[in-house]
From TrEMBL:
It holds the Pfam family Beta-lactamase2. This is Serine hydrolase. InterPro entries: Beta-lactam/transpept-like (IPR012338), Beta-lactam_cat (IPR045155), Beta-lactam_class-A (IPR000871). Residues 16-240 form the Beta-lactamase class A catalytic domain. GO terms for biological process: beta-lactam antibiotic catabolic process; response to antibiotic. Keywords: Hydrolase. It comes from Microbacterium dextranolyticum. It comes from the Bacteria. One of its GO terms (molecular function) is beta-lactamase activity.
C-alpha cells in the first residue's frame, strides 16, 4: 500500500500530525509530529484507561455510585450537568465521557481515581509530551495548569495504535477503552470523511468502517485521534491543530484539512472510492 498525501496545511496553525498503518506501524503521513499542542478533551483517554484498569482489577465496581465534589462541578460539554439524577455508577460515567466527552463525568471520575494517578497513566505508558494535566475548569486561574491536556501527533497516534492492538495495560483494558470510544458522537473532524451515522457506529458501518476515536475542541483547538479499520487495512491517526494568538478564527481551514486527511484514511482503510457504499 502507498502512503497518504496530506493536503496543503494553513501555516498560521500549529499542527502536530501522524498517520500510521495500525498493523505494521509504518508511518503513512506526518507533519511536525513532535510539536506539542493543547489537546482539550483528548487527554480524557488516559482517564478512561485508568478507570478500565481499575475495573479489570476489581479495585472499582461498574455500578459503584460516584459523588461529584462541589468544587469540580462544571457544565458545557456533556449531558450529566443537565440530568436530574447525577449520581451514576462508574461504568455509566465512563460511557458518558466516551460518548459526549462529558465534563462533569470526567471530573467525578478524576476525583474518584485521584488526579495524580490519572496524570501518571501517560508517563507509565512511556509518553513524555502527552498527558492529562488537570480537571476540567470553568476558568483557568493563575497557578493552574495551562490546559486540561496536551500532546503530540506522534505519541497520540501511537496510543491509538496500541489500543487497537490490545497493548495498553492488557487486551481487556484496551478493549474496554475502545468500546467507550466507539460511541463518540463527534464526527465533525477527521471522522467526517467516513460518512458514518454519528449516533450509531459501534458495528461496521458505511463501507464496513469501524471507528474508535476521541476529539477535543476549544475556541482555538481542534484535535481528532483515532483507530479506523475496514476490509483493506487499519489506520491509527492523530491530527492536532491550535491557533492560539491568532486574531482570526481558523476553524474553517482546519476542519477542511482534517476532512481531507480523513478522506485519505478512508480510502486507505477501505480500498474503495467514496461512493462505493455497502448494503448489509
Amino acid at each position: 500500500m502507498s502512503g497518504i498525501a496530506l493536503p496543503v496545511l494553513d501555516d498560521r496553525v500549529r499542527w502536530s500530525i501522524r498517520v500510521e498503518d495500525a498493523r505494521s506501524g509504518e508511518i503513512l503521513a506526518e507533519h511536525t509530529p513532535h510539536v506539542v499542542c493543547e489537546t482539550a478533551s483528548v487527554g480524557k483517554v488516559f482517564l478512561l484507561i485508568e478507570v478500565a484498569s481499575r475495573l479489570a482489577s476489581g479495585a472499582l465496581s461498574p455500578d459503584q455510585p460516584v459523588d461529584i465534589p462541589d468544587e469540580h462541578r462544571v457544565a458545557d460539554s456533556g449531558l450529566l450537568y443537565l440530568m436530574r439524577d447525577q449520581r451514576l455508577g462508574v461504568a455509566d460515567l465512563a460511557l458518558l465521557v466516551g460518548a459526549v466527552s462529558d465534563n462533569l463525568a470526567t471530573n467525578a471520575l478524576i476525583s474518584l481515581c485521584g488526579l495524580g494517578a490519572v496524570r501518571a497513566v501517560a508517563t507509565d505508558l512511556g509518553y513524555r509530551d502527552t498527558t492529562l494535566l488537570d480537571y476540567i475548569r470553568n476558568e483557568r486561574l493563575e497557578g493552574m495548569p495551562w490546559t486540561p491536556s496536551h500532546g503530540t501527533g506522534a505519541e497520540l497516534s501511537d496510543l491509538m495504535r496500541r489500543l487497537g492492538a490490545g497493548d495498553v495495560i492488557s487486551p481487556d483494558v484496551s478493549a474496554q477503552v475502545l468500546a467507550w470510544l466507539g460511541v463518540d458522537t463527534d464526527t465533525s473532524m477527521v471522522a467526517s470523511a467516513f460518512l458514518l451515522d454519528p449516533l450509531a457506529h459501534l458495528d461496521p458501518e458505511y463501507q464496513r468502517v469501524v471507528l474508535r476515536h476521541k476529539t477535543g475542541t476549544t475556541e482555538v483547538t481542534r484535535v481528532d485521534v483515532g483507530h479506523v479499520s475496514a476490509d483493506a487495512g487499519a489506520v491509527a491517526y492523530a491530527v492536532c491543530a491550535n491557533w492560539r494568538g491568532i486574531d482570526e478564527d481558523l476553524r474553517a481551514p482546519v476542519l477542511d484539512a482534517m476532512a481531507a486527511i480523513g478522506e485519505s484514511i478512508r480510502a486507505y482503510a477501505t480500498g474503495l472510492p467514496r461512493d462505493a457504499g455497502t448494503v448489509s
